[in-house]
Design brief:
By secondary structure, this protein is an alpha/beta fold. Helices cover 33% and strands 19% of the residues. The protein has nine helices and 17 strands. The chain starts with 6 loop residues before the first strand and ends with a strand.
């Protein structure tokens, strides 16, 4: 009997045991290359099964993954390496390979024997990078406990279960892409990874794979709303479209709903705190990111005084 797929990529389908075996094989390779507990490993890769496997491998060895965007140029990558100091590198991007010795993810992976043990909750899991709106990107540290908490928030807010199917087209180095991958692994939801954003391929995947939750950012939302043949795709499997990471105008969301009948669930998070607020799945508002998820406290303070403001007043989130 064929095992159900945990991860789908192009024509490849990986069951949970197969993904685990790949992770163990990569862990064995990384061990031979000298990776030891406590070390940082730079990872610069596109959306692909090997990204997921190498992330699990690094964690099984007690290491920390430094997530570098595959869209970055030489200077940005050089800056990221300088401030994080990884001892090893893994990826599929030539920029990283030119800056330090790199294990290329296109090399064959021999499935390995299971590795015992699990990372400590307070140990660093990843260093992810902020958008760098006031300069070069800044590294943000997440422990295993912090990621586990974020996954729990996301799973509960979106009511994700093992019956769900999602697709990930955002970079895995971005906190939203990473969060969706980890949540799918935790819940047992099936995920399809896309190597790049292609709106026709995404819409076709919703129809063919019966995707249940679409994770959208502004470029994806705009592409859906403006697609000339949107009505020709069967999107009836979608429970809703989540939007986060970047603002989506209500008019764009309303256009999609008018053309497809699919509603939206706005949510809000940051690189530092991946899940801050989310709308209820029923009765979501397009003009609000929702309420803070359980376990997260939010206050709005005055830009001038730094003191909390009252209802209806303008301020910044703290």
């Amino acid at each position: 009997m064929t095992e159900p797929a945990a991860l789908v990529f192009e024509e490849r389908r990986l069951s949970p045991p197969r993904l685990d075996a790949l992770a163990d094989g990569l862990a064995a390779t990384l061990t031979k290359r000298g990776v030891i507990p406590g070390q940082r490993v730079a990872v610069m890769a596109s959306n692909r099964p090997e990204f997921v496997a190498v992330l699990l491998a690094i964690w099984r060895l007690g290491g920390t993954a430094v997530l570098i965007s595959p869209a970055w140029k030489h200077d940005e990558v050089d800056h990221a390496l300088a401030i994080t100091g990884p001892a090893h590198a893994v990826g599929d991007h030539p920029v990283l390979g030119r800056l330090m010795p790199m294990l290329h993810l296109d090399e064959p992976i021999t499935p390995g024997e299971p590795i015992s043990g699990s990372p400590q909750p307070r140990a660093d899991a990843v260093l992810a990078f902020s958008s760098g709106t006031t300069g070069l990107p800044k590294a943000v540290r997440h422990t295993h406990a912090a990621l586990q908490e974020a996954v729990g928030h996301w799973r509960a807010a979106l009511q994700l279960t093992g019956r769900d199917r999602i697709q990930v087209a955002t970079p895995p180095s971005h906190i939203l892409g990473l969060l969706n991958i980890l949540t799918a692994l935790r819940t047992g939801a099936r995920m399809r990874l896309h190597p790049r954003f292609d709106i026709d391929r995404m819409l076709q995947t919703i129809e063919e794979d019966r995707i249940t939750v679409e994770m959208a950012v502004a470029p994806i939302a705009l592409a859906i709303a403006s697609h000339p043949r949107l009505e020709t795709y069967d999107l009836s499997s979608l429970r809703f479209i989540m939007w986060g990471a970047t603002p989506v105008s209500p008019s764009v969301a309303e256009t999609v709903t008018r053309r497809t009948g699919i509603g939206w669930v706005p949510a809000y998070g940051t690189t530092e705190l991946p899940v801050i607020a989310c709308n209820p799945l029923q009765g979501a508002r397009l003009d609000s990111v929702g309420r803070p998820v359980p376990g997260v406290d939010v206050r709005v303070v005055s830009l001038e005084t730094g003191q909390p403001v009252g209802p209806g007043e303008v301020g910044e989130i703290q």
